[in-house]
Design goal:
The structure holds two protein chains of two kinds. Chain A is an all-alpha fold. Chain A folds into two domains: 1-99, RNA polymerase sigma factor, region 2, helix turn helix motif (Rna Polymerase Sigma Factor, Chain: A), CATH 1.10.1740.10; 106-188, Arc Repressor Mutant, subunit A (Orthogonal Bundle), CATH 1.10.10. Chain A has helices spanning 3-14, 17-24, 28-50, 52-69, 79-97, 120-133, 136-146, 152-159, 166-183. In chain B, a hairpin with a 4-residue loop joins β6 (235-241) and β7 (246-252). Classes of the chains: A mainly alpha, B alpha+beta. The interface between A and B is large, with 45 and 36 residues. The complex binds zinc ion (ZN).
Chain lengths: 188, 282
């Protein structure tokens, strides 16, 4: 488990019924509190799904939808699962509409494939680039597993696929990633 | 099991999502199969890379922008006819985005302070300074807060024409008033730091907002309070989160404007716009 996972779980436990009720009533302070405790995860998901340029705007879109649809949250699933689903749907919908756009994952210079000598820090950047090159639906599952630390059951609920297919999609995601990583000069 | 069967299960094995009997079968296979082990070690390396990823930091003005979009949505629902609300707000946003950032930070700081409040030793934060008492009292009862100031400092109840003479400069408040506010009373107060003009205003709903114009360094006014300093248009601004309200201080020419009892970001924006306007007229 990474420190990210620990954080996301900590965030998770903080969204209580009382807070949701105040958001449901349209209370701005409640909305801010909910935003404060969850926007980190939405934003990091968006950066990896759609790139830095669109991440802020889409994060805001997610919260606009969240606050207007919060009455539809049934309470059958965990709130975070619902939020992740909302965020993933927003990202995938955006990518379908803008399928020609490449996801610009890095704020700075793109990693050149001509540079085989990647340092450890650059290896991380290489993963960001490789992630941006695989199929968005596979990418979403990979992120939920590796960055958000979710169980297969929760992943299945977020992306609305049978739990039994999460493993095989992750196999594909990881193999596709390896291929792109190797192309980018990754030395395993 | 064959290699291809094992490889179909490899992610689930790697992520510890297999039932124990199947897990054991996979483990047994891996003892003797170099190619499946190699595949698994690649999965592990990719996971390691992913664990090392640094989470991107959300831009600090994200909430401020979002709040404006939320407000724009609400006002569109409320006044379908007046379409100009949203663009006007967005212009505000661009012009005063630095301050909005500051206000956003303020909320973050405020929340953090409240969270800490229960278990940390904050006693030394309760400064005995009169202004601190004033700020604290203001949250519950602006009128009794006012009495604290007037009891402790020499003051004169003034009309705006007199104010300029007593202060030696033309205060912003004397030229015009922020829209929707009505002056209740103005005082020239001799504080330890400087002589300032205090104007108590009333909103249409009867709630109070108090505007100080003064000569000194603003940060001293907020000593003992959880506060933040932020740059606003190249100038230092200082903000304090009161219980339900905000206190903010910013520079206007050589002097400072300090406002107690601000409601939200929109109101800060409007007040800064007002003080900028009145400054331009000088
Ligand atoms: Zn094998």
């Amino acid at each position: 488990m990474t420190s990210n996972n620990v954080n996301s779980q900590k965030e998770a436990s903080e969204v209580g019924a009382e807070l949701l009720a105040s958001c449901l009533a349209g209370d701005r302070r409640g909305q801010l509190k909910l935003y404060e405790s969850t926007h980190g995860l939405v934003y990091r998901l968006m950066v990896r799904m759609v790139g830095f340029q669109e991440a802020a705007d889409l994060t805001q879109q997610v919260y606009l939808k969240l606050f207007s649809k919060i009455d539809q949250f049934s309470g059958h699933s965990r709130f975070e699962t619902w939020l992740y689903r909302l965020a993933m749907n927003e990202a995938l919908q955006y990518l379908r509409k803008n399928s020609r756009k490449k996801t610009a994952v890095l704020a700075g210079d793109p990693v050149s494939p001509q540079r085989p000598e990647a340092e450890r820090g650059e290896q991380r950047e290489i993963l960001e680039v490789a992630m941006s090159r695989i199929d968005p639906e596979l990418r979403s599952i990979f992120l939920l597993r590796e960055v958000e630390g979710m169980s297969y059951r929760d992943i299945a609920e977020v992306v609305e696929i049978p739990e039994g297919t999460v493993g095989s999609r992750l196999n594909r995601a990881r193999r596709d990633l390896q291929n792109h990583l190797l192309e980018l000069g990754w030395r395993a | 099991m064959s290699c291809s069967e094992i490889q179909n299960l490899l992610s689930a094995y790697h992520d510890d999502e297999l039932d124990s009997d199947i897990r054991e079968k996979v483990a047994k296979h891996l003892v003797n199969c170099v190619s499946c082990v190699r595949e698994l070690s690649l999965f592990e390396e990719v996971s390691q890379l992913a664990a090392d990823l640094t989470p991107p930091v959300p831009p600090s003005n994200l909430w401020a922008e979002l709040e404006l979009r939320l407000q724009a949505e609400t006002s569109q629902q409320e006044h379908v006819v007046s379409q100009s609300v949203a663009p006007a707000r967005l212009r505000f946003l661009r012009k005063y985005s630095a301050f909005i950032v500051a206000a956003t930070l303020l909320f973050a700081v405020g929340v953090g302070y409240l969270n800490q409040g229960d278990n940390s030793h904050n006693a030394h934060h309760h400064s005995s300074s009169v202004f601190s008492q004033y700020l604290t009292a203001f949250e519950n009862d602006p009128d009794s807060a006012q009495q604290i100031l007037l009891k402790n400092y020499t003051n004169d109840l003034v009309k705006s024409e007199q104010a300029a003479r007593l202060l030696g400069y033309q205060p912003a408040i004397a030229r015009d008033l922020p829209a929707d506010y009505e002056i209740v009373a103005s005082y020239v107060i001799k504080m330890p730091c400087c002589t300032c003009l205090q104007t108590v205003c009333r909103r249409k709903d009867g709630s109070q907002i108090v505007i100080f114009e003064h000569d000194d360094e603003t940060t001293e006014w907020f000593d003992g309070q959880p506060k933040i300093n932020a740059t606003c248009g190249g100038e230092e601004c200082c903000l304090v989160n009161l219980d339900e309200r905000i206190a903010a201080s910013w520079k206007r020419g050589k002097r400072h404007i300090t406002v107690i009892g601000i409601r939200d970001i929109t109101e800060i924006n409007e007040l800064i716009a007002w003080s900028d306007q009145s400054r331009n007229k000088i």
